[in-house]
Amino acid sequence: MKSIVAIDWPALLLGSEDWSFLPEVVLRTFIMFLIIIVGLRLMGKRGIRQLSVFELVVIVGLGSAAGDPMFYKEVGLVFSFVVFLVIIVLYALLVRILGKSPKVEDLLEGKPVCLIRDGVFEVENFKKEHLGSDEFFAELRLRGISQLGQVETAIEETSGELSVFYVPDDAVRYGLSVMPDSLQHPVTSITAPGYYSCIFCGYTEQKNAGAAGVCPNCTHRHWVAASGKKRIT
Question: I need a labelling partner for 227 at 20 to 30 A (CA). Which of 56, 69, 168, 219 fits?
Fold first, then answer.
């Protein structure tokens, strides 16, 4: 008859450590909590789309705390429970602080950012959000937009979502096309008079044959033919 193996309760609860390791667990969790927040803020809003920074911190932190004791024998359940507790307490405290301090909320979660105003890119804001033109143009096309002259304002919310306010159809102007390959053949010299858009900021103006000149909005020199199409609805 096989002997019954006794459960080593201290090893199950504490792993290979002892109770003196608990303060270090609290400190490690606090430090990693801050590191995760900073990392996610550096990633920008597109990296945390549809979730707040703190929701992601909680998901990542709790996921790690739950996963490690499942795979590593030396990780005790008590320490994982302490990690859970510290994360939840920190989350609750930060939520209270955010509710009472708009400055802290702006620092940690950011503010809505205007990316397009009157059909022209807000270039400095666009740079700060680390957005690629292909990705952004795809977002606009999904909203039935084919050129920037259809857009009054586009705002990136703190969640990473894009809010777009449209120009009425009877007020649509010429603007930079956002269709695929629309920026592939820029020119610095105009052969056919018409409306042209700066490929860097979307500034649009009517031009005659000759040198295209410098964009008065961003000082770049490359232009493409502008589009006057109305929005697809």
Answer: 219
